[in-house]
Design brief:
Largest interface: A-B, 81 and 81 residues
Number of helices of chain A: 10
Helix content of chain A: 25-40%
CATH class of the largest domain in chain A: Alpha Beta
CATH architecture of the largest domain in chain A: Alpha-Beta Complex
Oligomer: homodimer
Shape of chain A: globular
Distance between the termini of chain A: 34 Å
Strand order of the largest sheet of chain A: 9-11-8-12-10-13-14
Structural class of chain A: alpha+beta
Order of helices and strands of chain A: HHHEEEEHEHEEEHHEHEHEHEEE
Number of domains of chain A: 2
Radius of gyration of chain A: 20 Å
Largest sheet of chain A: 7 strands, mixed
Number of strands of chain A: 14
Chain lengths: 370, 370
Amino acid sequence: MEAPRSKTSAHVVDEVLQKIERTRQARRHKFYLRDERITLSHGSGGKATHNLIEGVFAPAFSNPMLDVMDDSAVFCVNDGPKLAFTTDTYVVSPLFFPGGDIGKLAVHGTINDLAMAGAKPLYLSAGFILEEGFPIEDLRKIVASMAQAAREAGIAIVTGDTKVVQRGKADGLFINTAGVGQVIATHDMGQNFLRPGDKVLLSGPIGDHGIAIMLAREALEIETDVESDTAPLHTLVEALLSSLGNAVHTLKDPTRGGVATALNEMAMSSEVSIGLEEHAIPVHAGVRGACEILGLDPLTIANEGKLLAIVAPEQAEAALQIMRAHPLGREAALIGTVQAEPPGMVFLHTDIGGMRVLDMLVGDPLPRIC
Amino acid sequence: MEAPRSKTSAHVVDEVLQKIERTRQARRHKFYLRDERITLSHGSGGKATHNLIEGVFAPAFSNPMLDVMDDSAVFCVNDGPKLAFTTDTYVVSPLFFPGGDIGKLAVHGTINDLAMAGAKPLYLSAGFILEEGFPIEDLRKIVASMAQAAREAGIAIVTGDTKVVQRGKADGLFINTAGVGQVIATHDMGQNFLRPGDKVLLSGPIGDHGIAIMLAREALEIETDVESDTAPLHTLVEALLSSLGNAVHTLKDPTRGGVATALNEMAMSSEVSIGLEEHAIPVHAGVRGACEILGLDPLTIANEGKLLAIVAPEQAEAALQIMRAHPLGREAALIGTVQAEPPGMVFLHTDIGGMRVLDMLVGDPLPRIC
């Protein structure tokens, strides 16, 4: 996957190279927080979220574990096993949507963050913020859904907390889940472990979660059968790690900000370039159709049951077979290659033979997606 | 501390005994959730919170670690050290108050939950829900306060998450902190470990936090210098455990619901009775005055830097001395005794020589105290 490819005209190459240079310039000052007030974009998981994290949280809380900016912190307590620890808050709207609800999402999301650290999820906490007047019947449904999701994934919710705020001071219900898992990966992984030549694998079609939420929320007259892909990915991760070991260089679930944001984060952390083949990226027809109508890019839409695996090239085919043999990876695909230059950039080789810079999500087309 | 005492008339004794029987009857159906919608009382930490937990969360999530209903779950991963894991969400209003802010509170609160499990706090997660339009300058202040609290306590905030909701869908900012600590207690502790004869120690004056919040919130014309007592109690716990070991039967920070609720929980879990001496319970003059004006009982008001220690009688004096030698326990006091009968009840021997049943907090005089 050399860039630029022969089909690309000299003019387009020039344009892309100029854009690269502009982007690089911009990234010298990357993640500068100019805002005086919080905007919805700060919750997008994309560029504005990074601005906020780099501008406020990272400098204040700085420590070696946080600074790697992976989704989980990894540590040992004394001579104990290596543990992963993560947290996520869920503010998805609506609370119930095709394919799931906020409870299921809150359990799967934290399981997945632990799994991406190469950990077997063990224990979850659950913190609830309830709005005065919230129907207890709905709370029961959500809690039952969490309990079922935990049971099915073989984990336990072991500690919790409940707060209530006055009517109008929250939006029904918010949930935080934190999780502890045992790291089963016997090698170091992370978004700074990409190497030129590595292959980019995606476990299945993208955009289902985000589009399902959007269609559940808006009174759009788009008829599709798109459902959230919310699912616990830890057994898929176990299958990959137990067979491929240190050939797995990093794992990432492309949630908020989508595949585009996740790969940009990796490219920056590892100081490599990533080239994607658009034709290879699986997207369900319903999602593709909705994205076309709404002017959205499936690559920036949130997923809740998909993972990106960056693997050594000699194990790419084996990884693909392992994924496809797993119920959650049947439509897995090899979608791209890691290159040395230019560092920190992601490119998309388009279906029509062009090439474009794929940036992380800017703005927030779909607030409160998770 | 025999009940009833000689000063108490036969009439009063009768009345108390009848009330005991009524309370026992009621407790056969204790914690029955009748409500159809969430009310502010469900967030009080008192009886309605228990109704909600026992009616919704406990049956759905049931597992041995959760079922003990301590503030932290305790477990080992493989042959590793014993760990404590806890979570708390903070929705305090206002965000800044005399003696602290929501950030400091969120760090101290989770440190304290770990400490009460006999654990040395190690790592915290931080999950933020931000309302669109929230001033970033205020966020910076809160984050700086969290960072300082963590630094002073010798712990690290290692993982986090940020979500944003639309204007009007939250109240400025909510924070969840979860925490992991290493259990340093070499014996089992918990609210079901109280034994008749045990002494009840309190590390200092009660009600400061709740009253400070209330006075910061309401435009009450009460002039006091009451400040929140928010403080990290882990070094006080370490001092007690390292000297007294298994003479410490349980530790509990009386936050939402106050001392009354905390002791009722213990009495029920351990199936013992607790008798308190009102005159021995330290209360700052400002808090006492505010409570009198507002018709509140300091025993049901939240504290954020105090602990209750239930210790074997022969070590009570030693425990008191250890507390008083610590900066956060200078005004510690022995406030009561554990008795066998009647199980599940807490009594207050009043200053004027009477005795009354002290129930857990009912209703919520001070919503969003933490």
